[in-house]
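new request in #modeling-help
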Amino acid sequence: MNNLVDLDTPASPALATPPRASRAYLLPLIVFVIFALVPLSALWGSQSFILALVTRIMILALAAMSLDLLIGYGAMISFGHAAYVGLGAYSVAILASHGITDGFIQLAVALGVSLIFALFTGAISLRTKGVYFIMITLAFGQMLFFLGTSLAAYGGDDGLTLASRSMFFGSKFLKNDVAMYYVAFGVLLGAYLLLRAIVASRFGRVLRGIRENPVRMEAIGFAPYRYQLTAYVIAGMIAGVSGFLLANQTEFVSPAYTAWQRSGDLIFVLVLGGLGSLHGAIIGAAVFSLLADILSHYTENWALIFGPILILVVLYARGGITGLFGSKS
Amino acid sequence: MTLTLALVQILNGLQFGLILFLIAAGLTLVFGVMDFINLAHGVQYMVGAYLVAAFTTMTGSFVAGLALALPAALIFGLLLEILIFRHLYDRDHLDQVLATFGVIIFLNQAVKYIWGAAPLNVAIPDALSGAIEITDGMLYPVWRLVIIAVGLAVGLALYLVVNKTKLGMLVRAGASNAAMVSALGVNIRLLFTIVFGVGAMLAGFAGAMVAPILSVEPGMGDNVLILAFVVIVIGGIGSIRGAFIAALLIGLVDTLGRFFAPTLLKLLLDPSAASQTGRAIAPMLIYILMAAVLFFRPSGLFPSKQ
């Protein structure tokens, strides 16, 4: 019989040997340097397509990385994480449709709404364990999905097109795709460093301890519930930021952002990249998006290839892509 | 007038609930016996609907189509079990969720590839296509009554098999403690393959029964799957009785909620706001119900594991 403790396998930093530990810094460094240089592709033309694709990758990576805090480090398999992306995106669109285009206000609302929703649903979800947790997070995600589809005033099923991207300090610089790109880049880098610090902190060690053995952690005086709820709220807020960016990049929001299939995609990205590895989430997002993009160029039935790849990854590629490098952060 | 309308809604709710039960029964046993989360269960419902559509067109008769679709759904389920799911029993829930998610992505696209993205229509058998008068002036489609009758009959049959036969005893024991049943010399894998096949066939059967009243289209299993999970989580995993009661509860709450929420809200709000809020709240009701049930009883109403 399986249980959630089986999730131990991904991250055991203590086991990493010194040469591999240095790789743990090398790989993320390479990833971010590549991201920083992508806009140079303008020198060879076709910039707008590449910029849009890689911006989307970074936004997906941000959401996946936040989910990794829950699944990879906390063994909390949330199947409703796309809900927060939707909350962030709708915060932008709804405020913009009422003429409030200031990015700081929109961001603050996105963070606030995500915080409240995560606090409320997390407090209930965390009372349950294992598969019940998976299902109840899914249920809360679906609640938001149906709320979105019934918001007739904000487009309902069809979604809502943004009149303009967010403004900062009264400037519309986000309209520029390179600026949009570097904002997403900066947010991803910032979130990566923040999550890295959180994971390495005492809080992060307690969280991993709870993942390994909640009963023992409780016995030595840590209340798992509070730590898990805090992690749940942090992850939700970061995913809310990714929704804020997504709405700005696509200039469109729709309930489809919060569908449970999108939560499934986020988990796929994580497992593809390697659970319990923050840069793994970024690499997973890149491979996922590029794969979907390339396959969809060859055939409109790309899902016929994508589905089996997913199954094969689960069956045979344990540890994901970062597992191949033998590095964990 | 309102009373008759309410009666129609109650019958619709029962019909929806019984369809959910047909799907959830297999899901809860698969889950209870092997601790296996099968997200692809909803696709088996979709496959059942497509199979009946294809065979009905081929033979020109719904009954013949159904007779061919059921064994085909059974074989299809067993094929999935042998090819993929069998390799996932010893994995953790995360792997199971992901791999079966891959099966969904593949099969949704596969039916689109084979039958096209446009919805298919299946005709109701002529003899059952009319409506009958239940009370004065109230007509109700015969086919929906057939679904209710068939759902109740399958529910009764499942109850008898699970509670009165040796196979049922093993399934119940397996849901409570699979390791112990296995240690007592029962081939739990074989038992499970049987449970899985029957579960897949029931889901396919549910799909086939609703094919004439819903449009048969790619992805039609996805939302039903989530509802089936809500049912088994509220009912308690591994419990047929729990699934039955929870399915009827969900069916009624969902159908009546959509009907009455705007009406009830009119007592508090002005009409246009009420209908808008009502339409927003109605689809969320069952999830609110689920959250509430799990808040008070974290392992469902009738947990089979002690």
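bot summary: Chain B has a mean pLDDT of 88.
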